[in-house]
Every structure is written in C-alpha cells, then in structure tokens.
Request: fold
Amino acid sequence: MEAKQYDVVIIGGGIIGLSAAMQLKAQAPRWRVAVLEKEAELSTHQTGHNSGVIHSGIYYRPGSHKANFCAGGARLLTQFCDENEIEYQRCGKTIVATTQDEVGRLQDLYQRGVANGVQGLEMMGPERLEEVEPHAAGVQALWSPQTGIIDYVKVSHAYAVRFQQAGGEIFTGAPVQRINRSGGGRSGGGLELETPGGALQAKHLINCAGLYADRVAQMLGERTDVQIIPFRGEYYTLKPESQHLVKGLIYPVPDPRFPFLGVHYTRHIHGPVEAGPNAVMALKREGYRKRDVDIGESWETVTFPGFWRMSRKHWKTGLGEMHRSYSKKVFVHDLQKLVPEIQEKDLGPGGSGVRAQAVARNGALLDDFSIIQGHDAIHVLNAPSPGATSSLAIGQHIVNLATQAFGVPAGG
Reply:
C-alpha cells in the first residue's frame, strides 16, 4: 500500500461505507478519498449475508432516523437500480396477526406506515389474505405491495465502481490495526492508520466498520457508552418442492420490546425461500457458526455492564431463542404459526448472518440508527435493518455531516 495522504478515509467496504464513499466523491471530487476493507472482498459480512429485502418503512417510529431514511432510501435505491440495470422485484410483504391479541399491534403498524408515507398499505381479513398468500393463516394481515427484494452485494459493487470511476481508491485485505494522531492528542493535525500493508495518512475518518465500529471509535478515544454485541440469525431454506407455499414475504407481528422482526419467510431475488431467523448471541463477532468462538471477544462482551443488564431483562427470551437454535422441531412449530402446512421435511440447510447490535451501558438494545460525530471522524455505530435499504439516504446524511464537520466544500 502506498504511503499516501488522503482527505478522508472510510473504514468498512460494506454497502453503507461504499454509499458514503461514492456520494462524498461526487460532492467533493477534488478530495482524495479511500476505502479500507479488512477482507479480501467487499461486502463480505452484513451486506453479504443480508436477506435482500427492500423495506418500505412500516415498522419504524415516525420521526426516527429509520423512518426518515427508509422510505426515501428505498426510492433512491430503486432509482439507482433502474439507472444501473440492477434487477429488483416488488414481491410485496404480508405481516400476519395469528391471534386476536396481535391485531392491535398490527393496526399500530398500519398507522406507522401511513405516517411514514408508505404507499398502498392494506389491512386484510382472512379471505383477502388467502388471495395474497394462499398458504398463510391469520385472523388479520397487513399487505405492503411496495416491499421488494434485491441482491445487495450487486448494489454495493455498483457503488464501488462509481466511486472508483470518480477517482476514489479501495484497498482490500487492509484491516486497521491502530490509529495515531500525528499532532498528538484528541485534536491533533492528522490521522495515521496502520494496516498490515503500511500506513495511510488522513485528515478525517468515516467509521463504517459494522461489527467493529465500536472498536474503531475506541481507537480514536471516543466515549460512546455502547458496545457491539453480535447476534447470529440462523435460517433454513425451503426445499424446491415446497417453495410454492410462499409467494412473497410473510412476516409475523413483531414484538415491540425487541429490534428483531421474528421468524419469517423471505423469497430471494435468485429464487430460494429462506425461513428464519432466530436471534442468538454469537460467541464471536463474526460467529456465523455455532462452533465459532473467540475467547477474547466473548470476554469483552461479558465484562461489559450493558450485557448483564440486557440479560437480566431478556433472559427468558434468550433461552427460548437458544432452544429454537438447537431444536428443529421448535423452529418448525414457530414457522407453522404463519404457514401451517410447513413440515420438517420441507426445510433444508440454510445460511446465517450476524447482526451488529449496539447495546448501551444501561442494557438497552439500540433500535434506531446511531451516527455520531467526533472532532475528526464520523462513526456509524448502529445501522441494522433497514440499513441496506436506506444506504443511499444514510450515505447522503454522512456526507452532509462531513461537509459541516470537515469543511468539505460543496462541488469539491
């Protein structure tokens, strides 16, 4: 790696880091901008394990970052895909209330969606539900025809191409091992980022490191009061002869206590249908398998005060998720609440993903996006779903912050 000077270095080659890079270079073309990605390929982790849903903005509290970024971000995303010939489909999403107790929460979701400007929402009874999803069962449902599916790796690679065409540089296989301030202290004159291939000099930093975003912030001495705790989501895949049971996307009514959407069915842009996920704490930040364990990272988790406060509040739910993780029968039972015809024989092996869940010191699971600004850096500390859907809107927000904080001149 050449020892170059950059105006801005972005850590993290996932969809949000690449979106920010592309838009920053477009707004400030004279600035020297680089992206550092620790893996050999871009979009390996959360982007590469994404379920591929283009969310419409139903779930999110009006006025929150998620609500503000999701609907607008989805429009920007589909426009970008149209311009760059990237395939997507509007297959629609059905959120199903399986008991009368859930109907009130379903109606709340409808009101949230309307407040967030989601188009085409429809409350449905059992007969209309049967028309939309013939094999689903429920007492009432919410239909969102604008929800779609896409391949987010293709999208992120298109962002990378546009960034490089504008003169930006991307370094892969370049984990940041240490960050030094060349001027000394928190307000020094520059940053030196040490990687195995050499050091880079930067005036400013944008931290989009996902599962390691808190660590990058710590390297710069930021006091964030949050820590990333990884949660693994495990899936099954419907076998080809059973995929007709799901036409689009079938979701349960989510539990408002958690930032997870519950076990659901997701049709992918390339054809397969996934069923899941559960949400179990991983013993490694990149712990995609049950056997993946990192003693140091696990110790870091259990010594964080927020972990124990979170655990005391949600231990019953956590045990239930672990039980489902190790019992296919329990997993199937939960899937049958939405599609009663599903049997164990219908499910084949599936993949997994790891959610970078920011947890506060008081044990709260951060539900909204969290983007903070330091003296010479911007840190994206929490950007779970709908982060990919919102990637262009989040990227523009980051660029706006950079313009104000770093003095990036409009037009370069």
About this structure: The chain has two domains: 1-52+151-224+368-412, 226-360.
